[in-house]
Design goal:
Helices cover 44% and strands 21% of the residues. It is of the alpha/beta class and 297 residues long. The protein folds into three domains: 85 residues, Winged helix-like DNA-binding domain superfamily/Winged helix DNA-binding domain (Arc Repressor Mutant, subunit A); 89 residues, 3-Layer(aba) Sandwich (D-Maltodextrin-Binding Protein, domain 2), CATH 3.40.190.10; 106 residues, D-Maltodextrin-Binding Protein, domain 2. The strands form four sheets. Strands 3, 4, 5, 6, 11, 12 and 13 form a seven-stranded mixed sheet that branches. It has a two-stranded antiparallel sheet with strand order 1-2. A two-stranded parallel sheet has the order 7-10.
């Protein structure tokens, strides 16, 4: 049988403290417990490590040789534990983050300089995909997704939420007029929407249909960023989350329409990841950092 860590520590502490009683006090164990650990160690090694008398303890020749190796082993373990503590306090390693292009551009990218200053040992790999991905297949640590989650096998953390608004550019409204109601919007305006899934074409507009209007887009795109650019360029009316349009709204590049008919709907922002054991420090600190920033908005 192999020696245990408890037995090695007991042996080293007895030698360094000079007695079993002193070692027991130092280790916060009973005297009998330390004695049993020493006996087990000697039995496993089939040798005597300590000469025991009523007045003192002394190392045998075999004990001296074994103690030298035990000290090296315990020192290596102490060093490994210290490195893990430092690693938790200063996370390091590669962190692979996947997000839809708009969220990556408008939320993640602006935060990276501050994140890098705080965690310089983390090597970031930023990937974009507007579709749901397989984390293992794509070799991804964290994927950030907007809206309800459908995969219950993943662990998820809510990072924040964003409100949906119906928007158009001043140029579009000048050319086509501002929609006055839902019927006017559907009958007389160019609506911009998503290729898939169709649920992304549910606009939070209140009317005879209820609190949700399923539109039939005249122009479809796979990316919200493409739709944003089309709307800014005056192509049509779009429904997008605040995270990618707040700056446009502040500059007057996009204007909210039908605000009186808009239901306040907030899309949740989730971080999804596999978590079979303790969450890696580099992942945990990234999630905390992004959550703090989104929560402050």
């Amino acid at each position: 049988m192999k020696s245990t860590l408890e037995e090695l520590i007991a042996f080293r502490t007895v030698v360094d403290s000079g007695s079993i009683t002193a070692a027991a006090e130092q280790l916060k164990q009973t005297v009998s417990g330390v004695s049993r650990a020493l006996r087990r160690l000697e039995a496993k090694l089939d040798t005597t490590l300590l000469h025991r008398t009523t007045r003192r303890l002394g190392l045998t020749e075999e004990g001296e040789r074994f103690l030298a190796h035990a000290r090296i082993a315990l020192a290596s373990l102490d060093e490994a534990e210290e490195l893990l503590i430092v690693h938790r306090e200063q996370p390091a390693g590669r962190l692979r983050v996947n997000a839809a292009m708009p969220f990556m551009l408008h939320v993640i990218v602006p935060l990276i300089p501050e994140f890098r200053l705080r965690y310089p040992l983390i090597e970031l790999e930023l990937n974009t995909n507007d579709l749901v991905i397989d984390l293992l297949e794509e070799d991804t640590d964290v994927a950030i997704r907007i809206g309800p989650l459908r995969d219950s096998t993943l662990h998820a953390r809510v990072l924040g939420s964003n409100r949906l608004r119906v928007l158009a550019s001043p140029a579009y409204l000048k050319a086509h007029g501002r929609p006055t109601n839902i019927s006017d919007l559907v009958a007389n305006h160019v609506l911009l929407g998503f290729n898939q899934p169709d649920s992304l074409n549910d606009w939070p507009l209140r009317g005879p249909h209820g609190d949700c209007l399923r539109i039939a887009p005249a122009v479809r795109a796979s990316s919200g960023e493409t739709l944003r650019q089309l709307a800014v360029n005056g192509t049509g009316i779009v429904c997008l989350a605040d995270f990618m349009t707040l700056a446009d709204q502040a500059r007057g590049v996009l204007l909210q329409v039908l605000s009186q008919d808009t239901v306040e709907v907030r899309q949740p922002v989730h971080a999804v990841y596999y978590r079979n054991t303790q969450l890696a420090a580099r992942v945990a600190c990234f999630l905390d950092f992004i959550s703090e920033r989104l929560g402050a908005e």
